[in-house]
User: Which sequence fits this backbone?
């Protein structure tokens, strides 16, 4: 393989730049040319493709976002869009493609793979919702952003003796909410993977209140409901004063954590290893701190599983 392409797609995540850097540097180290495709699959269709040099990825390892820009592309879901993409890849003599993104982006990589075009998926999303890897690039940074915000909210929640309902991202997954809740000692964590536990939340709030607890933190994953709606229900069921914070896109930005930079560097470089050994149609990941790869077609048929032990622990620690 003499020439490869790399793109980032879907919601950006901190560490994507570190992954791009690893792809570019590792490939050039092995005398493989790299072309950067801007704006994800849309840029692929439009031919927004440029050669990357060693210097193209200098000074980006510490930056959030993605230097290649990102997009969600409806056209690439169509047969016609995919053919246009393959046409551009062939026109530029690109023999393999690395797709950094979440499961929507992997769908694009899957389609190309089905059409016989060599692709490797690198999991980059704050949601941590991709099967076949313990962690996705960006999750750790987003988690730390959430924790930092909740720590601050805690101060004012204590001063005013209020109950805070905090909405975090994660799309249909509850990982960000669960990890943040455990790390921050939240009273309740509401995630899509578990059944509605509203009555239990209210009981816990009342119990806490009765034994003199002055404030409470409830974390709601966006995949369940909005924090505004949830707080209304809490106010209707109790006489507690509530406030709402929706952390929103702050969770997607910021300088990547050391952990995300290292993960991105390892996964990006491993994707090149796979292409060099002729492997394609794979997704790279990390399991028990070991680099792994899975069939990208098969991995997308699996469900992402939440860590139930962690969920139970969060309840035990917030009695
Ligand atoms: O998948 C990443 C993510 O940030 C989700 O957590 C969130 O639901 C979604 O993207 C938001 O997408 P957008 O940036 O298009 O509003």
Assistant:
């Amino acid at each position: 393989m003499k020439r490869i392409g790399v793109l980032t797609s879907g919601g950006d995540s901190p560490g994507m730049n570190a992954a791009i850097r690893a792809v570019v540097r590792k490939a050039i180290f092995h005398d493989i040319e790299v072309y950067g495709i801007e704006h994800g699959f849309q840029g692929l269709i439009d031919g927004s493709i440029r050669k990357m040099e060693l210097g193209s990825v200098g000074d980006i390892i510490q930056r959030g976002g993605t230097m290649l820009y990102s997009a969600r592309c409806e056209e690439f879901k169509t047969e016609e869009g995919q053919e246009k993409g393959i046409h551009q890849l062939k026109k530029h003599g690109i023999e393999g493609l690395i797709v950094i993104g979440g499961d929507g982006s992997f769908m694009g990589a899957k389609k190309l793979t089905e059409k016989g075009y060599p692709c490797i998926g690198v999991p980059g999303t704050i949601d941590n919702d991709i099967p076949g890897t313990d962690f996705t690039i960006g999750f750790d940074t987003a988690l730390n952003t959430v924790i930092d915000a909740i720590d601050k909210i805690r101060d004012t929640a204590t001063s005013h003796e209020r109950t805070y309902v905090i909405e975090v991202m994660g799309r249909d997954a509850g990982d960000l909410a669960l990890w943040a809740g455990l790390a921050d000692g939240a009273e309740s964590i509401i995630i899509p993977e578990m059944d509605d536990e509203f009555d239990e939340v209210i009981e816990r709030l009342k119990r806490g209140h009765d034994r003199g607890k002055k404030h409470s933190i409830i974390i709601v994953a966006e995949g369940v409901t909005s924090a505004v709606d949830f707080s209304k229900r809490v106010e209707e069921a109790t006489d507690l004063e509530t406030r709402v914070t929706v952390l929103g896109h702050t969770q997607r930005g910021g300088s990547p954590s050391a952990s995300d930079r290292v993960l991105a560097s390892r996964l990006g470089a491993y994707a090149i290893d796979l292409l060099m050994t002729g492997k394609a149609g794979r997704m790279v990941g990390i399991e028990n701190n070991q680099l792994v790869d899975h069939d990208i077609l098969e991995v997308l048929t699996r469900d992402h599983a939440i860590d139930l032990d962690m969920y139970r622990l969060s309840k035990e620690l917030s009695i």
Q: What stands out?
A: The chain has eleven helices and eleven strands. Residues 11, 102, 125-127, 169-171, 222, 252 surround 6-O-phosphono-beta-D-fructofuranose (CB under 6 Å).
